[in-house]
Amino acid sequence: MKALVLESVKKLSIRDVPISETVGPYDVKIQIKACGICGSDIHYYLEGAIGDFVVKEPMILGHEAAGIIIEKGERVTHLGLGDLVCMEPGIPGVFSPEVLEGNYNIDPDVVFWATPPVHGCLRETVVHPARFCFKLPAGMSAVEGAMMEPLAIGIEAAKKARINPGDTALVIGAGTIGTMCTISALAGGCSRVFISDVKAEKLGIAASYQNVVAINTAQENLEDRIIQETAGRGVDVLIEASGSPKVYPGFFRCARRGGRAVLVGMMNGTVPIDVALLQGRGISIETIFRYTNAFDRAAALVSAGKIDIKRLISKTFPFKDAIGAYEYAAAGHSEVVKVMIEL
Ligand SMILES: NC(=O)c1ccc[n+]([C@@H]2O[C@H](COP(=O)([O-])OP(=O)(O)OC[C@H]3O[C@@H](n4cnc5c(N)ncnc54)[C@H](O)[C@@H]3O)[C@@H](O)[C@H]2O)c1
Ligand SMILES: [Zn+2]
């Protein structure tokens, strides 16, 4: 089948890849209709590695996708042929302790699309466990469906933040992930979400959502502004989504006493944390790694009109121009949130 293959660093090709696919009793076969380009795809494309994950042989990219079910296993009852679904890209083992405890995202043996050596899904068809496929609500397109993967990260952050109705939140970093966290925090019940970035041009799209307040921290002090905006208290919820070590430990001062912080942004290396500050203010810290049980919630919120996801689809390329799409995404235009490829 045709696929977009990362042959080596900065070298992509669209070519036939021999892949044999068997549909097991609990699987479905999906014809891919849309696939987004993620920050991780760009890292593999430009650098050939993310941390310990190194691309050693040609690998198909892509893990944010939606498509149509064209075949199903005999034990699949909740999905039918012709259904348009989005797919959760990471498949855990069945019997790992993490799975049995309900934390399937941290199963060390999880098999995740486009994480070497596992091929991604920017190809004609994939076979996937039906339980990791989610029927899209009526009216949702494949391109919107492919947005459920990055949105699921925002939903996970909102879940971990234990948002109470009316909470205020501060999201650090207005990249794709920070923006997903912002719209998820609003959909999860926040009355106002502050979002900060060091680049003014990154803040425009997030700030176009109602009840979002943009703070350009190249120009003003974050803590001062948050304290002023929250009548001296600080926000209920902090979400770190920049991955910048420079944010630490200062941003914890933006949380109110008893507030919650969720660490989403990843980095290499370590950062200082002011333990006494956290203890004295009773601030609890949560982390997230991808998501659990979030895709159907993400799709339901979009379908209910609680989240406008279309605004974040910046440009869509046909599959024949997939290499151009990667070049465009890798150029890092600041106004671009998500680049999509349609098949
Ligand atoms: N935990 C998870 O499961 C998970 C999943 C996906 C991505 N991530 C991580 O989330 C982070 C964000 O991903 P992304 O794709 O949105 O990246 P991105 O590079 O598009 O966005 C990061 C944003 O942070 C801004 N920034 C940098 N330094 C800053 C600072 N000091 N203060 C405020 N803003 C600052 C940048 O200008 C940029 O707009 C990355 O670290 C990524 O690895 C985590
Ligand atoms: Zn992704």
3D architecture notes:
The protein is of the alpha/beta class and 343 residues long. It has 2 domains: 2-147 and 309-342, Medium-chain alcohol dehydrogenases, catalytic domain (Quinone Oxidoreductase, Chain A, domain 1, Alpha-Beta Complex), CATH 3.90.180.10; 153-287, NAD(P)-binding Rossmann-like Domain (Rossmann fold, 3-Layer(aba) Sandwich), CATH 3.40.50.720. It has helices spanning 39-47, 97-100, 142-146, 148-160, 176-187, 203-207, 222-229, 275-281, 295-303, 322-330; strands at 2-8, 11-16, 27-36, 49-50, 53-54, 59-60, 64-72, 84-87, 90-91, 111-112, 125-129, 133-135, 168-172, 192-197, 212-216, 235-240, 255-263, 284-287, 313-318, 338-342. Strands 3, 7, 8, 11, 12, 19 and 20 form a 7-stranded mixed sheet that branches. A hairpin with a 2-residue loop joins strand 4 (49-50) and strand 5. Helix 4 (148-160) packs across helix 9. The longest helix has 13 residues, at 148-160. The two termini are 13 Å apart. The relative contact order is 0.16. The mean pLDDT is 97. Nicotinamide-adenine-dinucleotide is lined by residues 39, 153, 172-178, 196-199, 202, 217, 241-244, 246-247, 264-266, 288-290.
